[in-house]
TrEMBL record:
One of its GO terms (biological process) is protein targeting to membrane. One of its GO terms (molecular function) is protein-cysteine S-palmitoyltransferase activity. Pfam families: DHHC. This is S-acyltransferase. It catalyses: L-cysteinyl-[protein] + hexadecanoyl-CoA = S-hexadecanoyl-L-cysteinyl-[protein] + CoA. Belongs to the DHHC palmitoyltransferase family. The chain crosses the membrane at residues 12-35, 47-69, 147-174, 194-223. The keyword Metal-binding does not apply. Residues 101-232 form the Palmitoyltransferase DHHC domain. One of its GO terms (cellular component) is Golgi apparatus. InterPro entries: Palmitoyltrfase_DHHC, PFA4/ZDH16/20/ERF2-like.
Length: 297
């Protein structure tokens, strides 16, 4: 299980560098060019804002690093499905309702329920959600929580940054500076620091929209214990079922709280901790709403 070792460089790509640069540049701009000169970090308000932004950025970076470097869940070449009659029935049900093919022609091996072949990684991935170029990795069984929490913390940090940038901009409009400072000198200092603040806002607006949209989408998927692939399969399965006068229900949706526990862990206090993934054991089984258990590994 795991990709061949090629050094840490295998995790680096242009999009990964862009994400890290955006995070570093935004944090530096907010702390050095907005919060400190405007609110002063020695005041309670200034310190609280720096502390909150630092916590959100640190957790976003931590989640992002895990999403990038963590193995998303490759299938061991030794995997063989249980071909007992009972499981075979479930496999037939899956093929009918989800269009699944449990044998990967490319890897020439069987794949467990919810696993899919990634054309970029050229491997099958457990509970594959999608291949994300922004983490240069597949998002699957073992790094989905980190990926989701990255969208949560990035949205929080982006929202706080935009509120600070906007409020600072409004409050400094028409500000003529301290009485003992020459108006021209003050104007030049404001102009020189305004450029990186404007660049920061231009970068953060689309980044915040993208992060918030991803967070909302994956929160919806979490509530229903679906992957992005299964969502699209479900749309197709619903059409097919309606064609023959039947309904379709996603087989792994077993209740909102249990769905959240399956993805985020049994301890609610650890739901926001990206490294708390002890619940994702390699012998995890997929429980369905009908009470069936499908073996993943
Ligand atoms: Zn495959
Ligand atoms: Zn992939």
């Amino acid at each position: 299980m795991g990709r061949p070792a090629e050094g840490y460089w295998r995790f680096v790509s242009v999009p990964v560098v862009i994400v890290l640069l955006i995070m570093g540049f935004s944090y530096h701009t907010l702390v050095v060019l907005v919060i400190h000169p405007w609110l002063n970090v020695n005041t309670t308000t200034g310190f609280a804002n720096v502390a909150l932004l630092t916590i959100l950025c640190t957790m976003a970076l931590h989640s992002y690093a895990l999403a990038v470097v963590r193995d998303p869940g490759y299938i061991p070449s030794s995997y063989l499905p249980d071909l007992e009659e009972e499981v075979a029935v479930h496999e037939v049900k899956r093929k009918v309702f989800l269009g699944g093919n449990r044998y990967c022609q490319k890897c020439e091996q069987y794949k467990p329920p919810r696993a899919h072949h990634c054309r970029v990684c050229k491997r099958c991935v457990l509970r594959m959600d999608h291949h994300c170029m922004w983490v240069n990795n597949c998002v699957g069984h073992y790094n989905y929580k980190a990926f989701f929490l990255f969208t949560v913390y990035a949205s929080g940090a982006g929202l706080q940054s935009m509120i600070l940038l906007g409020t600072h901009f409004i409050q400094t409009l028409g500000d003529e500076g301290p009485e003992d400072m020459d108006a021209k000198v003050f104007s030049e200092s404001v102009t020189s620091s305004a450029f990186p603040r404007v660049i920061c806002a231009v970068i953060l607006v689309p980044a915040l929209i993208a992060a918030a949209a991803m967070m909302t989408w994956h929160f919806y998927l979490l509530l229903h214990n679906k992957t992005t692939i299964e969502y699209h399969e479900g749309v197709r399965a619903t059409w097919l079922a309606e064609d023959i006068g039947q309904g379709y229900r996603h087989p792994y949706d077993i209740g909102i709280f249990i769905n959240l526990v399956a993805a985020l862990g049994p301890s609610v206090s650890c739901w926001l901790c990206p490294s708390a993934t002890g619940h994702l054991s390699p012998d995890l089984q997929c429980e369905t709403f009908s009470g069936d258990i499908l073996e993943m590994e």
